[in-house]
Structures are given as structure tokens and as C-alpha cells.
Amino acid sequence: MNAVGASLMRAERAPLPRRRTTRAGAWNADRLYRIVLRALATTVFAIVALMVFEMVQGAAPTLRMFGARFLATTDWDPVFDKFGALPYLYGTLVSSGLALLLALPPALWAAIYLAELARPRLGATLAFVIELLASIPSIVYGIWGVFVLAPWLRTAIEPWLIAHLGFLPLFQGFPFGLGMLNAGIVLAIMITPTIVSLSREILLSTPGALREAALALGATRAEAIAVTVGAARPGIVGAVILALGRALGETMAVTMVIGNTNHISASLLAPGATMASVIANEFTEASDHLHLSALFEIALLLFALTLVVNGLARLLVLWTLGGRRDVARAT
Amino acid sequence: MSRARPEGYPPLAVRGPSLDRRLWNHALIAICYLSTALLMLPLALIIWHLVANGITALTPGFFIHMPKPVGEPGGGMANAIVGTLIVTGIGLALAFPVGVGTGVCLAEHGDGRFGHLVRYTADVLGGVPSIVVGLTTYALVVLPMGRFSALAGGIALGILMVPTIARSTEEVVRLVPESYRHAALALGAPGWKVTQDVVIPAARAGIVTATLLALARAAGETAPLLFTALGNRFWSTALDRPIASLPVMIYDYARAPYADWNRQAWAGALLLLLLVTVVSAVLRATTRRIGRT
N or C: less crowded end of chain B, CB within 10 Å? Predict the structure, then answer.
């Protein structure tokens, strides 16, 4: 699927002449065919509408009972019908933010290497490998996080952090291995391929004249790269936000490594929980009406959050790529 | 260095960039190289650990035996492998017509307001976290049916596949040269025949590839199956009963406190990785070649 070819083709497309039917307004195969296609396309619309409807309906009892308090309180006690989603909101934002913090610098530099420095053949091959890594199922990352990363963190990395950076509230406590830090690292590894391959595409799509002009003026390679990156900045920001959207909704890997407690702790070593992980953990065991409703409301919140984040990202990517939808879609 | 210049002009000095600019240049390039190597490290580690831990348990018995009770050595995931095939098969059967129909509709008639709306909705659906898809499928299918079922799992995976298939189909159908359509129309073919018999066959390879990529991705999904297909320790192929699937079984086995089960979880994860990644690799490599020629 040659994307550049696609956009050229679209530009050349001339409007087709409307085919005149012999009997005006008569039922014909053409109209029927179009109606079938439209019906199928409407299904997509119907799926999303139904999903939103079901979530709102499912969440109605807690929405009515707690209102905005749902977002601001930290109690989560199904036995006493107390539900506050703040710990989960906090866990989702902190684990994803940590992942972004860890993944962003190396991912961007790697994208620059692949787009600007590597020989085109090598760059394309490495980008292909990195794209493949994006297709690894999240359960696989989860298993690695539990059985390999957690023991490392518990025995080596976290004790070191406590000994040397323990004066910061971020690194106080007990080395569990499972917790916010583990979730952040696993998420960082998971979103790296998205950031790298999208940023590379965007860097490659910037006009070559920019770089050539910079070099002709006597800029070093690094300075020429800075010019290109500057031109690609909105698109790169979009790619990063798109990766953030993936991290926010990631379920299995995070559920396995985050430790699952609903305490808000300043320390990254402490266990926590995210919106996605609490749904995965509690939904099959939730028998109480209000408990189910609270989980539906969390799903609704997560849906709204990813909707906003993805919308923002897509806008930025489309803006820089000028309608290259294939890249915007490649989440 | 100076060159001959016209009278009255000072000699032109040509100097390279200053030392700090050169240092900065080399530093940045070095950082880029190092970062790429650094990124490859955890990914290589994950694959290495998977192979090292999973390969011993990935015996022929793993594919043909049923799970054994705790404590008994051996046993396999035969039911989960078949279950995954069934559930993804249902998902494919549901998502393929909807996805391809939507994609063709968007490519051929999708420039109006309706097309933009559908395209936007498909993008929204593509960004919905898979756990949310699982939860809503529970409300839509499991609650009315009264029990967890393979069908519900298939529907959840189908919902996940639709946007991927639709948007990829749109892209490949748009790649079909306009001259094909003009030629067919000039021969007197009605519009629907042009789409059905000329445009879609021309885009067939791309549509199949996109569908298989979506299928491979869906086969590795765990979260949407937790509250729909649920899982099953026993052999079941009934569509209206809970059914085992590879990802859910891996999840259960990885959480269990038995070393033997954990080993099997590693083997299952390795199998899943091979399944998903090899399929994706082969497909992507072949489409690249098609795209280039």
C-alpha cells in the first residue's frame, strides 16, 4: 500500500459523470447496491452509538447517586456501596505519564536516526521490525513484566533507587517489584514502536528542500535535522498523543504488573490500579448492582478520555501530513 | 583559503563550522545511534525470554492435550487453541462484510458528509480501549443471552476488527486506478457492476491482507474476551457456551501460583507471539513487495 501513490491518485481523481438511468427514479440495481453499502457503513455508526448507550445506561445508577463526587473521592468499598474513582484516574494518568516520560526521548531520537541518518534500506528494515513489535499481544508484555521485570526491580533496581534517591518521595517505600514503576516501564516499551514508526513517517514526509536549504546555508547535520524536526513538530506531537491514547486504555499488561490496590501513593514503587485494570479485575466478581454500575461509569470515563486524546492526536497528525490518513490511522 | 575576487573586494574566507557546532553535531548523532540500540534492547530481551522460557513446554503434546489438574505434569492447551480459532472465526465472519462494505462505501461514495461521519466514527471505534469493547459486549450480548458464550467473544473481537478492515479497505480501493472505472463505465457497465466486478477484484489482494492483519491482532486480544467468552477448562465447541481461548488461558495460568502452570503460560505466550507476529511479518513483507512493483 503505497501511501504517497494513494494521495497522488486522489488528487488526480476527476468527478465521474452521473450515469443516467433509462427510467428516472426507478428502482435499479445501482441504487440497491449503494443502499447495501450505506447500510453496512451505518453499522459502524450503530456499533459506537450502541456502545455509548449501553455504557450510559449501565452507569446511570452511580451517575445519579454520586454525580461529580465519583471523580473526587478515593473510597472504593463495594460492601458499603461507596465508590470513588479518583485512585484509578490517578493510576491511569500517572502510569501513562511515566511511560511517556521514559519512552519519549529515546523513541524520538531513534525516529530521527531511522528517518535522517540511517541508509534508506537499513532505516526501512529497522522500521519494519519496529512495526512488527507493535503487533505483539499485550498479554505477552504482561508475562514478561511479571516474571522477568518484577524480580529485577525487586532485587536490584528498586533497592538501588531507595538507597540513592530515597530522599525523594517518589522512591520511598518497599521494593515490591509490582507497582507503578513496573507498569510505567512495560507501557513505555509497548508504546515505543508507535512513537518511532509514526514519527519516522512524519519526518520522511517533510519537504527535502528544508534540509537541503539548511545544509546549503552551512548548517551542520544536527542543525539541518533541527530544522526538519521543527517543521514536523505538530505531527510528532500528534504521534506522541496517539501513543498516549494507547497507553491510557491498555489493560492486560498493566493489570498484571501494577499490583492492584486503590491507594494513591506518591511513591512510584507502591502498587496502584488503573481504570482499565479495575474493570478487568472486578467485573466478573461484581455481583452488586451499584458495583457493576460504578465499573460501567469507569468504562465511560475511559472511553471519553481516549476519545478526547485520540481526537486531538489525529487532528495534529492530519494537520502536518495534509490528509495522509493512512499514517493517522496506523495506531 | 582565498580565491581570486574582483578588484576592491576582500578575499572570501571559507571556514568549516566552529568547534562547538561540530561537537554538538557529533553528540546529537551519537545520541540518535545509541537510542536506537537502547530501544532494541528491551524488545530483544522480551523475545529472548519468551523463547528461553517457553520452548521447553512447547511440545507436540501442548497442541493436542487438554489441560491437566494442578500437580499432574504435562497437559496442553488444545481446547484453548481450538477456542481461539472458533472465536476469531466468528469475529471474522461478522467483521469482514461490515468492514469491507464500509471501506468500499467510503472509497467510492465517501466524499460527502455521510462519508466523513462514518470515517470519523470508524476512527473513534478504532481508538476505544479493548476492555471497554468487552464490557459493552457483555451488556449487549451476555446479559440478554443470560450466559457467557463463544458467540459473545466473537462479537467483541468482530467489533475490534471492523475499523481496521474498513479503513485499510478504503485505502486499497482508492489505489485502484481511475482508468479502470472509466473503462468499465465506457463499456456500458452499470455503477454497481463496476464496483463489484472491476474495482473490488483489483483491490482483492490488499483487502485480504488487511483482513488477515486485523485477524492476527484480534487473535492476541485478552481483555475483550474476559467478560464475553470467559474461558473454559474443558473441551467445548458450542457457540452458546463459555469457551477457552489462548490469551485468556495464558492470563489465568500466569496468575496461578503453580510453577508448572507458569511454564505453560510462557509456552502459550510464545505460541501466540509466533502466530501473531509471523502472520503480520509475512503479510507486511508481501504487501510491501506488491506496493513497490
Answer: C
**pLDDT computed for residue A46 by the predictor:** 95
The domain B75-245: what is its CATH number? 1.10.3720.10
The residues, ordered by sequence, that sit 6+ positions from B132 with a Cβ below 8 Å of its Cβ are A51, A55, A249, A279, A299, A302, A303
- Note whether B267 and B74 are within 8 A (CB): no
Task: Give me the amino acid identity at B88.
Answer: T
Global confidence as pTM: 0.88
For A86-329, CATH gives: 1.10.3720.10
**Residue A323: count of CB within 10 angstroms of its CB:** 11
Q: Where exactly are the structural domains of chain A?
A: 86-329
Cβ–Cβ of B131/A299 closer than 8 Å?
Answer: yes
* A contacts of B292 (beta carbons < 8 Å): 2
- Using a CB-CB cut-off of 8 Å, the residues of chain A touching B206 are 1
CA distance B178 to B185: 11
pLDDT one-digit tens code per residue, B165-196? 999 999 999 999 999 999 999 998 888 889 99
What's at B168, amino acid-wise?
Answer: S
Q: How much is the ipTM here?
A: 0.88
Judged by CB atoms closer than 8 Å, whether chains meet at A132 and B281 is answered as: yes
Q: Is the pLDDT of residue B3 over 60?
A: no
* Selection from B229, B249, B88 nearest residue B157 by Cα: B88
Tracing cell 500517572 back to the chain, one arrives at A94
Across chain A, mean pLDDT equals 86
| Apex B48 CA angle, B45 and B49, nearest 5 | 85
Rounded Cα gap, residues B182 and A144, in angstroms: 54
Measure the CA angle with vertex B246, ends B243 and B247; round to 5°. Answer: 105
Name the DSSP class of B154.
H
Distance CA B8, CA A181 (A): 69
Provide the H-helix boundaries in B110-147.
113-127, 130-137, 143-145
- What's the pLDDT band for B292 if we cut at 50, 70, 90? very low
A113 to B33: CB separation less than 8 angstroms, yes or no = yes
Contacts of the segment B24-31: beta carbons below 8 A, 24+ positions apart:
B24/A220, B24/A222, B25/A220, B25/A221, B25/A222, B25/A223, B27/A222, B28/A222, B28/A225, B29/A117, B29/A221, B29/A222, B31/A109
All three cell numbers of A228: 526538519
Alpha carbons B223 and B133: distance in angstroms, whole number: 9
Cell of B224: 475483550
Question: Pick from B98, B255, B276: which is nearest to A137 by CB?
Answer: B276
